[in-house]
Amino acid sequence: MPFLGGKELAQVYVKAKREKFALLANNFAETNVLLGILAAHAAKRSDLLLQISQGAAKFAGGGKPLAGLRALFSYVRAIAADYQIGVFINLDHVTPDAIDSFIVPAVKEGLCSSVMIDASDRPFEENVAITKRVVELARPYGVLVEGELGRIKGAEEGIVSDEAFYTDPAEAVEYVERTGVDLLAVSVGTQHGVSAGKELKLRVDLAKKIDEKLRSAGLERPLVLHGASGLTAEQVRALVDAGVCKVNKDTTYQYVYARTAATFYLTHRTDIVPPDGVSFDPITFEAQGAQWSPNKKIFDPRVLGKEIQVAIQRVAEEMIDQVGSGGRSIYG
């Protein structure tokens, strides 16, 4: 299926809210992670929400975020055409200083289905004003907007918080009413980066209260869970039951990628790294100090790349089961 926009993504969230499941929101910056995630969602018949942060776009664009976003979008659109699931892109944690340089061209060029504006480190009134501006910019193009209220402990895209500030349910109602956001990211005890879910003070009760307050006010919205890597299946399920429809995953994929690469290179060290005391020239392929040469069947990056894709697919399938989106694609 072709890459889909905000209109179709909104339909997925309505379905998720009604049937009590969530979408994994999968961050990626390069193709091995992307292909592994795609394979998992295709196998599970789950619609796929990909996330591209400013940092990921900058990496993919050789230091130029917008160029990187265009490149990643083009790749996703080409690959998605062969998959029978809905494929969407969310711009993740875009900071206020990048509205004009990143969000505006992205929505005008149709490079995303939704965008998350992160002004959570600003005072409430400033957060409202910034988020409302992004909603007004995105709406004519059918792009959904996610805002964040409260602060999640840890660092993400240059926004750092040493402690969590839980989302206030009454403020959540006011924030949604005044900004018109389509999704609300809440702070209920999760943490950006490496954190074990069982060690977190998770407030499932607070997520449920926020959801109930919004519904009572006629402002029901899908809730978003940032910092979700490390949560147990039981914690994820409880939060989905409480109204969460989007669960962000990034750190898990980063670790699986690095762990797979480290294991591969440690296992095949002698096929890639010359023995101690041996000097090897990668241009002339000459070894000095002993008879040795690397094994091309091993050091070809596609060999490791395939292992990374398989490892990413495996963990993504497990997390799809946790959020309950398998078999629920809008395409049946």
Structural topology:
Blueprint: H1 6-19, E1 23-27, H2 31-44, E2 48-53, H3 54-60, H4 65-80, E3 87-94, H5 99-108, E4 114-117, H6 124-138, E5 144-149, E6 154-156, E7 159-161, H7 169-179, E8 183-186, H8 204-216, E9 223-225, H9 233-241, E10 244-249, H10 251-267, H11 269-272, E11 279-281, E12 286-288, H12 296-299, H13 301-323
Parallel strand pairs: 1-2, 1-10, 2-3, 3-4, 4-5, 5-8, 8-9, 9-10
Antiparallel strand pairs: 6-7, 11-12
Helix pairs in contact: 2-13, 3-4, 4-5, 7-8, 10-13
Descriptive notes:
- The chain is an alpha/beta fold and 332 residues long.
- The chain has one domain: Alpha-Beta Barrel (TIM Barrel), CATH 3.20.20.
- Helix content is 47%, strand content 16%.
- It contains 13 helices and twelve strands.
- The strands form three sheets. An eight-stranded parallel β-barrel has the order 1-2-3-4-5-8-9-10, surrounded by ten helices. A two-stranded antiparallel ribbon has the order 6-7. Strands 11-12 form a two-stranded antiparallel ribbon.
- Helix 3 packs across helix 4.
- The longest helix is centred in the C-terminal third of the chain and has 23 residues.
- The protein is elongated and about 75 Å long.
- The two termini are 12 Å apart.
- About 4% of the residues have low confidence.
